[in-house]
Write a structure and sequence with these properties.
Blueprint (H helix, E strand, L loop, with lengths): L2 E3 L9 E6 L6 E6 L3 H20 L2 H17 L1 H12 L3 H26 L2 E3 L8 E6 L5 E5 L7 H12 L3 E5 L5 H15 L4 E3 L4 H8 L5 E5 L2 H12 L5 E4 L4 E5 L5 H13 L9 E7 L3 H12 L20 H14 L3 E4 L13 E4 L6 H4 L6 E7 L2 H8 L8 E4 L4 H6 L7 E2 L20 E2 L4 H6 L5 E6 L14 H15 L15 H9 L1
Parallel strand pairs: 6-7, 6-9, 7-8, 9-10, 11-12, 11-16, 12-15, 14-15, 16-17
Antiparallel strand pairs: 1-2, 2-3, 4-5, 5-19, 10-18, 13-14
Helix pairs in contact: 1-7, 2-4, 2-6, 3-4, 3-6, 4-5, 9-10
Length: 521
């Protein structure tokens, strides 16, 4: 990024910065560095427009969002090209990303009413005279701070769902992809005609300004370290946050897995988008009986996979230059501690591109196993059984996504992994299903985007109790009688006094996955 002065400014010079093509270093666009005052003004514009937007019915908002969806779809090639120029990712990957975002926009718009509108809930026997309802009104203005690695799909997981829920949005895209953010806001304004979606651009200071600008919630995607700073900034005004932070996602391969499919998915999950994926594959744990077969299959598929600027390349450059040092240090640490590079290595890290690197025999406490690498690298480890695979998978502070390849026990293994999402016999498939929540645990963050949970994330639950007729027992009054107290005690005893019998002794099944395996021989 380079700082310049805007020559068109008529009064005080406006500070600007350039977004650069990471493949060539060419300037893609020049954008303003919005000040605190300008960010606050954007929030106020959004709040004013949001009053109109929130007053619309769910069907009316669906109509507007569907029209926006149509514009994005018809200009898909234009958006993909802009993403390609700002991130360096291949056009095909950019098209895939934008297409999935469109699908999520359609789901959010079409399902918001069913998830959020007022509905009846049971009032219970004690309060039988009350009609109970719950609904989910919008918060107001949501601030979205987006990442550069998936500049459309990831922020749209917050933008689309917040808008569908009735909120206005102020979006601060990454300083590496500001053009994509402006493109989204401009097409929305062209379609809807009201500035319900605003965009502000700049660096970390602009994001901090958004946290302090009076928004009603902040949705952040980025590193764990930056997520903590966002939380600290929002805590000053008690602004709630949803954090989607880093990951160190693992693949578990059982002995009965489809090895060819597992190898293909692991390689793609590790190297697609040049490895710059929060839910990308960074670790693989393979049952010892199929370890050699798996490694051989993955290496065979990796032949000819190159990261360069040729038109047919499947891998683009590393978008953020300083990440090159992180990738290099993780590989070097793994090798220094006894690991081996079957392909790639330290020399695979170039000035802009990183070639695929496959590491084996890497200690579990090394950087390449414990810390997010965010490059086209993967560690593969042999395990004696699935108990060991699960234990190693769970032995990091992250818990975003995960993958299991197994025929018989895939769902059982998936249920024991400490992560927000798991794909069974696929990779990152959960992200493409709009009805599934997306988010992590531990240092991978908290809160959810996507699905019904993602819609509710940008609302607050509103409970209403309406008296239908006078109560049989007058309880909420100072004229309550002793007889009423006795009747209440009798009613509660009748409803809840019997309880259940707690079984004595250990009841859990013995042996787990390994015992069942031994029975099979």
């Amino acid at each position: 990024m380079t700082l310049t002065e805007n020559p068109l400014a008529s009064t005080e010079a406006t500070r600007t910065f350039d977004s650069l093509d990471p493949t060539t270093g060419d300037v893609v666009g020049t954008h303003p560095i919005h000040t605190d005052e300008e960010v606050r003004a954007a929030v106020e514009r959004a709040r004013e427009a949001g009053r109109w937007w929130s007053a619309l019915s769910y069907d009316e908002r669906d109509t507007h969002l569907s029209a926006w969806k149509g514009v994005i779809t018809r200009r898909l090639a234009q958006l993909a090209d802009l993403m390609h120029r700002e991130t360096g990712k291949p056009h095909g990957d950019a098209t895939l990303e934008a297409s999935l975002a469109i699908d999520h926009l359609a789901w959010a718009a079409g399902n918001a009413g069913k998830v959020l509108k007022r509905r009846k809930v049971a009032s219970g026997l004690v309060m039988a005279n009350q009609a109970a309802t719950v609904e989910y009104p919008p918060l107001g203005v949501v601030g979205v701070i987006g990442p550069w690695n998936y500049p459309v799909f990831t922020p749209m997981g917050s933008i689309a769902y917040a808008l569908a829920a009735g909120n206005a949005v102020v979006f601060k895209p990454s300083e590496y992809t500001p053009g994509v953010g402006e493109w989204l806001a401009q097409t929305f304004l062209e379609t809807v005609g009201h500035p319900v979606l605003q965009v502000v651009t700049g660096f970390g200071e602009t994001g901090a300004a958004l946290c302090h600008a009076g928004v009603d919630k902040v949705a952040f995607t980025g590193s764990t370290a930056t997520g903590k700073r966002v939380m600290a900034a929002c805590a000053e005004t008690l602004t709630p946050v949803v954090i989607e932070a880093g990951g160190k996602d693992a693949v578990i391969v059982d002995q009965d897995a489809d090895i060819d499919a597992a190898a293909d998915a692991s390689l793609w999950g590790a190297c697609s988008n040049a490895g710059q994926t929060c839910t990308g594959v960074e670790r693989v744990y393979v049952h010892e009986r199929v370890y050699d077969e798996f490694v051989a299959a993955l290496l065979e598929k990796a032949k000819g996979l190159r990261a360069d600027d040729s038109p047919g390349s499947h891998l683009g450059p590393i978008t953020m230059p300083k990440q090159l040092d992180v990738i290099r240090s993780h590989i070097q640490d793994a090798l220094d501690r006894g690991g081996r590079a079957l392909i790639g290595g330290v020399d695979a890290v170039g000035e802009r591109f990183v070639q695929p690197t496959v590491l084996v025999d890497v200690p579990e406490d090394s950087l390449a196993v414990q810390e997010e690498t965010f490059g086209p690298t993967v560690t593969i480890a042999k395990v004696r059984d699935m108990e060991e695979a699960i234990a190693r998978t769970n032995a990091t502070r992250y818990g975003l996504g995960s993958t299991v390849f197994a025929k018989e026990h895939g769902m059982e293994i998936a249920g024991r992994i400490r992560s927000g999402m798991t794909a069974v016999n696929g990779v990152i498939t959960f992200a493409a299903i709009p009805s599934l929540p997306f988010g992590g645990v531990g240092d991978s963050g908290f809160g959810r985007i996507h699905g019904p949970d993602g819609l509710k994330e940008f609302t607050y639950p509103k409970a209403i109790a309406r008296q239908r007729f006078k109560p049989m027992l007058a309880l909420t009054t100072f004229t309550r009688t002793e007889k009423a107290d006795q009747q209440l005690a009798q009613l509660i005893t009748m409803l809840h006094g019997r309880g259940t019998t707690i079984p004595k002794g250990p009841q859990a099944p013995q042996g787990g996955l390994n015992r069942r395996r031994r029975r099979r021989g």
